[in-house]
Amino acid sequence: MTDRAFLKTFSGLLAALVALTVIIFVVAQMVSGSGKAKTKVAVQADGEIVARIKPVGELVVASATTVANGVIPTAKAADGKSTYDKACVVCHAAGVAGAPKLGDKADWGPRIAQGNDTLYTHALKGFQGKKGVMPAKGGQVQLSDADVKAAVDYMAGQGK
Question: Which CATH number fits domain 80-158: 3.40.50.300, 1.10.760.10, 3.30.70.250, 3.40.50.1820?
Answer without folding.
Answer: 1.10.760.10
